[in-house]
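Hypothesis: this fold can be encoded by more than one sequence.
Test: take the structure tokens below, design a sequence, compare later.
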């Protein structure tokens, strides 16, 4: 569903909130070049044709020139999709608002980072304990003189 910029920025936090516990929100930002099916047909003709006109169409399609393009921003979940078009003049202001929105609504990522670090620390402690059990403690004093002589003989 294509929304204007303000409605998009108001609907995006609702998507983040709905998918906070389980799910994901995919946000894509890309250039919108205003060309539809007619342009696709021209590109197809250029690929299939062998003449000079076909080459000219292909080269014209690849050259960008001094055009300014709008930006297409999409957000999608498993059940809902929203999008907006942002004019080049409004892009900086829109991205600043979008950045602030991300900072306020993506707090859950910090929680996962902490869990990841905690799990890594637990694995490290378990590995250290396993290494400690595998090494015999040669510094401990044996209870009898016979065991002490046996240990000394094994060291040599």
């Amino acid at each position: 569903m294509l929304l204007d910029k303000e409605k998009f920025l108001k609907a995006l936090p609702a998507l983040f909130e709905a998918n906070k516990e389980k799910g994901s929100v995919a946000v894509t930002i890309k250039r919108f070049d205003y060309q539809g099916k007619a342009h696709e047909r021209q590109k197809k003709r250029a690929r299939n044709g062998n003449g000079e006109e076909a080459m000219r169409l292909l080269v014209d399609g690849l050259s960008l020139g001094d055009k300014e393009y709008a930006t297409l921003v999409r957000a999608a979940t498993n059940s809902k999709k929203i999008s907006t078009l942002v004019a080049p003049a409004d892009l900086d202001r829109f991205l600043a608002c979008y950045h602030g929105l991300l900072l306020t609504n993506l707090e859950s990522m910090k929680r996962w980072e902490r869990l990841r670090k905690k799990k890594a620390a637990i694995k490290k402690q378990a590995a250290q304990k396993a290494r400690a059990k595998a090494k015999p403690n040669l510094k401990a004093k044996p209870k009898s003189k016979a065991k002490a002589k046996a240990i000394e003989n094994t060291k040599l």
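Residues 108-134 form the longest helix (27 residues). The CA atoms of residues 13 and 104 lie 9 Å apart.
Hypothesis status: open.
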